């Protein structure tokens, strides 16, 4: 099978530089998510010294853990975990980047694929972020529990029209059912447990900007000395989007916010201890 991906490699990328894998949502491609996020991950790669790859899902989707997902990749049981690992190995061969472990950010169906990485290849991950993606319920989950022990971000909108914040059925605006998922809070707690954190969480609100309208952002931090931290971003009134400086998602996906710039916040959190 022939597979494709985009990559962004800064001109002076250092030896053994980290690799960030950005996984797009359903009916998207690597180019779609790269454009919709305003090329911010590329800009961060220049500023922070890493390489970004944007894999293309088979049939514009991923073979994630949801038994009821209707993507071509799921129906044909495409080996996406191997595909992503092969890309990271190719980056190492070509550019001398880190060969063993990588960071992963997934949006929507891409977030579900990131969950599969956390379940089946946790030893390869250095950091993880899920945007608009909650863990499937037990009756809809083909994977084992997440086993990663890395800095993790869970970012969700409370008014998400596709992946419900409080859990329940996932559909594409009423079509293409993907089965049920748990809530964003339960998803976050799964990583808190996986990282062995027992300390009480702290919560704070991000500064509100007038252009964000009625949206607002709360941050819930789970930290404990010697443990990889977990952070949940709760976007009140937010939709099924990746909040960026440009807001590159259509209104049909719900409201976005300028109170948080997802690419910068995510990278700085998951890569802080590298």
Walk me through what this model shows:
The longest helix is centred in the first third of the chain and has 16 residues, at 80-95. This protein has seven helices and eleven strands. It has a nine-stranded mixed β-sheet with strand order 1-3-2-4-5-6-11-10-9, sandwiched between helices. Strands 7-8 form a two-stranded antiparallel ribbon. The protein is an alpha/beta fold. It is globular and about 45 Å long.
Key descriptive features of the protein:
9-stranded mixed sheet, 274 residues, globular, 25% helix, 20% strand, alpha/beta
Write the layout of secondary structure elements.
Layout: E1 5-8, E2 19-23, H1 30-36, H2 40-48, E3 51-55, H3 72-75, H4 80-95, E4 102-107, H5 109-120, E5 125-131, E6 152-157, E7 168-169, E8 180-181, H6 184-194, E9 202-205, E10 216-222, E11 230-236, H7 262-270
Parallel strand pairs: 2-3, 2-4, 4-5, 5-6, 6-11
Antiparallel strand pairs: 1-3, 7-8, 9-10, 10-11
